[in-house]
Amino acid sequence: MAYLELLRPSNIIILFFGTLLGAFVAIGGGAFSQLDTYLAGLATILIGGAGNVINDYFDIEIDRINKPKRPLARGALSRMHAFRYWLILNLIALIISFFLTPLNLLMALFTIPMLYIYSRYFKRMLFIGNLVISILVSLGFLYGAASTGEVQNVFYPTVFSFLLNLGREMLKDLEDVEGDNALGATTIPIRFGTTATLALVTLIFALMISTTVVPYWTREYGHMYFLVVMLGTNLPLLYVMVKAWHNPTKENLYRQNTLLKVAMAFGIISVALGKV
């Protein structure tokens, strides 16, 4: 169970369906009859899960303050076991990527070391860490599309994912100020404070909401997309921001970050409906 916890199942499930969505957006419903689509989804789970493992490997001291129930922080697994687990997950992902397309293999070869560098260096750097991880997460859509041999039509879901994850990462930094500050990390909340961070997150989510209207306005996505994205994604975003401004405590921000995962899931559903 500790090995499973390290992967953070709720996160990698979203990555899996995001990858399938990328394939679907690229070539339509035929993507679901191709084995490569599901192999791409599996590889994304492995790479994303490995990224979470190496993150916990480097963050063990911070997690003992911010997230003491995580497997390494509570001593359920050793750092050595976690590192070996990271190696195995990535090796399997690379083997799968080798049997997909050259672009899939190239993306895997890029993403795996970048997730390592992010966890070891970038995560504690002002804004750079937020930017890097948001880009890497949003590549899941492109990875899924690449498995079909076509990479068109994934612009909008990639942008949506990038903006939503960027805002969410900053809220997570606000949630984790205590541990980050204790171990010398430089994050936006530590450098500029709560109000400035919330103002920046609000700006990012406002841009995200505005961007979701564009494919409906250009008639690339239909009415069902607009309905689901407005009610399932944009409305929760507004709710999260109101609650975060009203009560920016660690406990409340944790709840709001959990709700953002629901918003992400509905974002995936909305784009899928937009291409039906």
Task: Explain what you see.
The chain folds into two domains: 1-153, UbiA prenyltransferase (Tetracycline Repressor, domain 2), CATH 1.10.357; 155-276, UbiA prenyltransferase (Four Helix Bundle (Hemerythrin (Met), subunit A), Up-down Bundle). The chain is built from 14 helices and no strands. The chain has helices at 2-7, 9-27, 35-58, 60-66, 71-74, 79-98, 102-120, 128-146, 155-175, 177-182, 188-192, 194-217, 223-246, 250-274. Helix 2 (9-27) crosses helix 8 (128-146) and helix 13 (223-246) runs antiparallel to helix 14 (250-274). The protein is globular, with a radius of gyration of 18 Å. The termini are far apart.
Count the DSSP helices.
14
* Total number of distinct structural domains: 2
Which band does the percent of strand residues land in? under 5%
Q: How many beta-strand runs?
A: 0
* Main β-sheet description: none
Query: What's the shape?
Result: globular
The CATH homologous superfamily of the largest domain: UbiA prenyltransferase
Q: Specify Rg, calculated over alpha carbons.
A: 18 Å
CATH topology assignment of the largest domain: Tetracycline Repressor, domain 2
Helix content: over 70%
Strands, helices and their partners?
Layout: H1 2-7, H2 9-27, H3 35-58, H4 60-66, H5 71-74, H6 79-98, H7 102-120, H8 128-146, H9 155-175, H10 177-182, H11 188-192, H12 194-217, H13 223-246, H14 250-274
Helix pairs in contact: 2-3, 2-8, 2-14, 3-6, 3-7, 3-8, 6-7, 7-8, 8-9, 9-12, 9-14, 12-13, 13-14
